[in-house]
Amino acid sequence: MTSPFPIQIARALGAEPPAPVTHVDSADLPSCYPVSALASASVGAAAGELGALIGARDVVVDDRLASLWFDMTLQPQGWALPSPWDAIAGVHRASDGWIRLHTNAPHHRDAALRVLGCGPDKPAVAAAVSDWARGDLETAIVDAGGAAAAMHGVADWSAHPQGRAVASEPLIAWADHGTGAPPVALDQVRVLDLTRVLAGPVATRFLAGFGARVLRIDPPGWAEPGVEPEVTIGKRRAGLDLTRQSDRATFDALLAQADVLVHGYRPGALAGLGYDAQSLRARAPQLIDISLSAYGHSGPWAGRRGFDSLVQMSCGIAAEGMRRSGADVPLPLPVQALDHATGYLMAAAALRALRQRNAGGRIRSARLSLARTAALLMSGGARDLRGTAIPPEGVRTLPEDTGWGPARRPHFPVAVDGRGPRWRHPAGPLRVDPAAW
């Protein structure tokens, strides 16, 4: 069956056609939903927009590698990556079903433990969770500033107020902001990256690989050690505290010279720092604003903290995987496909907006969400569990120097006129570069 995803993505991006993309090889990751088809379509969308922007003659996507790059790709040589997951993160059985706790960030873990009234010991957490109804615990942890998601079935989510809100949103919500920006070549495009794990960094990694100048900004103390080696390649990495006046002045100067802003703050959070849409536009009228949320931009959960693994619990993916596989625990997708697909769609949106700005000075912004990408994936239909993991044998890798030591990484799935990405900077720790272009 032909995948519906390319047509849906093309409609979401708009009328201007992308460059033709040739797809080679294939994969089918083991899943109850067509994850590999989503990988092919989302990577292909970004590749097509890239080709159209730079006038490429030949754009090729290796679909097997696209599926591979929907997972962690870096292979340390002589050193080890820390686990991306906190010790108490994951699914727990509540009194009436399942709930997932997301405790990788220390403040999210602390919020969950305050609600549960126990220490960071997995058996103690499991015992405490079992005394709660899953919906009550989800609400209590979210209200305490944490991140959690009770498991819903597909039908339950379709009837849920937030599920209905997400279903009514476009895959990419565009807004126009007039005209007046001059054209700029991709290797001169300045991208200000305010994103964290994982969708936003995937988007800016793609842009950095094909020429854009990406500057990532992180607040003091933020760390994501399990994924920094994966997603910082190609980017310069600075730190700013937007609650300090001097750092705000630096950030304002960066904004004034940026072409693209990519941010993953939940709706209202950036505005709370004094950077709502109007303020951003006043500081940088030329700015292409690409934003991401977890649960969409409307509905009662629009401001809720969320991550790929939580959205899979909320929207029915984990429940459907459990049901169709016969598992006795929630079964998520084999990769964080919502993050990766949304990241490539964000990159595609940024490239489409740059193309429109170069063609006539038109300035646009785009909003995407993990939950709406989940709806896209689920529109491809559920199936009994099938598919095959990609064996490491036969996958060519390239050597890479990182800030932690030598590594290898598989070839990137996109080649434009015979060339893959050329990242300007090696992957490395956060906040090591000046906050300057």
Structure description:
It is built from 17 helices and 16 strands. With 437 residues, the chain is an alpha/beta fold. A seven-stranded mixed beta sheet has the order 7-13-12-11-8-9-10, sandwiched between helices. The protein has a three-stranded mixed beta sheet with strand order 1-2-16. A hairpin with a 2-residue loop joins strand 4 and strand 5.
Provide a brief overview of the structure.
The chain has helices at residues 5-13, 35-54, 63-68, 106-116, 122-129, 134-143, 154-159, 161-168, 199-209, 228-231, 245-257, 269-272, 277-283, 308-315, 317-325, 337-360, 370-378, and strands spanning 22-24, 59-62, 75-76, 90-94, 97-101, 148-150, 173-179, 190-194, 213-218, 236-239, 260-263, 288-293, 362-369, 397-401, 406-410, 414-416. It is α/β, with parallel strands linked by helices.
Number of strands: 16
CATH H-level superfamily title of the domain at 5-80 and 167-296 and 335-416: Crotonobetainyl-coa:carnitine coa-transferase, domain 1
Fold-level CATH name of the domain at 5-80 and 167-296 and 335-416: Rossmann fold
Spatial order of the strands forming the largest sheet: 7-13-12-11-8-9-10
Whole-number radius of gyration?
21 Å
- The proportion of strand residues reads 15-25%
What helical percentage do the residues reach? 25-40%
- Average pLDDT reading: 96
